[in-house]
Every structure is written in structure tokens, then in C-alpha cells.
Specification:
single chain; mainly alpha; elongated
């Protein structure tokens, strides 16, 4: 089995601002989504699967959230913080497993599935108003 190496560095990941300024919220959301997608790509590689590129909806999401109002912005920022927490912990665990020369494939696939589900719920819930 080949060891996986990733240039995704959790130590240099920018923490999510939980209370960004009104002008900075869209940029914060955009940066956090890009960082999560980068982490998801690393997890996908460990799971030996390809992650789809960011969709048009994901790329337009920060601007659309800014137009929808304050509670949706706050909800989105909180959800992205939760997703960041589980992705950082999960990726760190996967890299530790890999460093011990164990196979991380199944765990990586499960983590990626959880990320994809959380991302889909964020995108759907935020726009439909079902998020609470």
C-alpha cells in the first residue's frame, strides 16, 4: 500500500470568524467553503475516490446567502464551523491511521459521505428556510 501525502495543512487553516463584519461575512463564508472543499479532496484521495468539482451553486452560495438576510448568514457560519470541526478531526485521524501504515479507505469514504450530506443539507436548508 502506498502512503498518502497531502499538502492540506490543518495548522495553517484560517479559523472561521463566528461574528464577522457585515462586509466580511460573504468573504468568510467563501474562504471557509473553499477550505472545506480542499479538505474534502484530501479525504477523497484517502478514500480512493474522486470528489466532484465545486458546483455553480457552491460557488454562488456566499453571495446568495448575503442577500437572504442575517439569520441565514449566522446559520451558515455556524454550520460551516461545525463542518470544519468534524472535517479537521476526521482528516487528522485519517492521516494518523495512514502514518501507521493502516488502510484509511473505508473511514475516509464514510467521512466524505458525512461531509457531502452536511453540505447538501446546508445548501438546501438555507435556501428553503427549513434551517432552524
Amino acid at each position: 500500500m502506498n502512503a498518502f501525502s497531502s499538502n492540506f495543512d490543518l495548522a495553517n487553516a484560517e479559523p472561521l470568524e463566528l461574528i464577522p463584519s457585515a462586509n466580511g461575512a460573504g468573504e468568510t463564508i467563501s474562504r471557509q467553503m473553499a477550505t472545506l472543499h480542499e479538505a474534502a479532496n484530501a479525504v477523497a484521495a484517502l478514500g480512493r475516490i474522486m470528489l466532484e468539482p465545486q458546483s455553480e451553486l457552491m460557488l454562488e452560495f456566499p453571495a446568495q446567502i448575503m442577500a437572504l438576510g442575517e439569520w441565514r448568514i449566522e446559520f451558515t457560519i455556524n454550520q460551516l464551523a461545525d463542518m470544519s470541526a468534524f472535517m479537521q478531526a476526521g482528516l487528522a485521524a485519517l492521516l494518523a491511521v495512514t502514518a501507521r501504515k493502516q488502510d484509511p479507505t473505508a473511514a475516509a469514504q464514510t467521512l466524505l459521505s458525512e461531509y457531502i450530506d452536511a453540505r447538501a443539507m446546508l445548501l438546501a436548508g438555507t435556501f428553503t428556510g427549513n434551517a432552524a
